[in-house]
Amino acid sequence: MLAEKSLLMIPGPTPIPPRVAAAMTRPMINHRGEAFSALLEEVTTKLKKVFRTEQPVYIFPGAGSGGWEAALVNTLNPGDAVLSVSIGDFGDRWCRVAAKLGFHVERLRFEPGQAADPDRIAEKLAEDRERRIKAVLIQHNETSTGVTNDVRAIARAVRSHGALLMVDSVSGLGALPLEMDAWDLDVVLTGAQKALMCPPGLSIIAFSERARAAAEQSTMPRFYWDLKAAESSRQKWQTPYTPAISLLYALREALQMLEEETLEGAWERHRLLGAMCRAGVQAMGLRLLA
């Protein structure tokens, strides 16, 4: 028996607005037909506004964590070194994914409750005089602690080195300010199940021109997450394999809601609710981790 209503107070999946839930009841369509192409183009165009980018945005069926693997296997080569900057559990997980894929991982870990220090990142990269480090992995917002990194400052620290900057914004995009193009970010990834107000099941990722150039040289084996295949299909507003059509309907509706509220309005709503929550916790005599 389905529960009519529940109080869901976790970072994600988040409660789904009725409009988004209703959108998923639309009849199924031919995923190789014109209606689907129009749907994909509309959703992708709306996503670019949320990412604040003119770069292509790709949607893969999967969890947000799949974006970690997509970012790595499309831009790097076997045995490349990466700098994993972790401020919590999800930063540690991305580090483990990179190691599992055979990359040489250098770790820079900060205590839970702390944000990453851009100066320490710059110092770590300055030690890499041979430019062995090809990518820096960071969380925009660390889901396990709620701590937000200063992505813009970190981007400035990384740019002088030349490594690609990859940003996990699974719990940040749509809730916190992020400017992919203005901050010169190379890869930004997210999932649909947090601030984008959709059920789990979509991994969404954008690559800069620099990252796409690296993809042309990458020799990492890949199939499901292959950017070249995704781009070839995107040129026709198609996907390399069967897409999650109902979830795309949901995402279109959620993005329409964000447009109606304005992205800046959504950022302010999350800021205000976060401040109210922290004030309430402290009023009960509890100590905040961050």
Automatic annotation (TrEMBL):
Pfam families: Aminotran_5. Residues 22-285 form the Aminotransferase class V domain. InterPro entries: Aminotrans_V_dom, Aminotrans_V_PyrdxlP_BS, PyrdxlP-dep_Trfase, PyrdxlP-dep_Trfase_major, PyrdxlP-dep_Trfase_small. GO terms for biological process: glycine biosynthetic process, by transamination of glyoxylate. Its cofactor is pyridoxal 5'-phosphate. One of its GO terms (molecular function) is L-serine-pyruvate transaminase activity. Keywords: Aminotransferase, Pyridoxal phosphate, Transferase. Heterodimer of a large and a small subunit. Belongs to the class-V pyridoxal-phosphate-dependent aminotransferase family. Soluble hydrogenase catalyzes both production and consumption of hydrogen from suitable artificial electron donors or acceptors. This subunit catalyzes the tritium-exchange activity. This is Tritium exchange subunit.
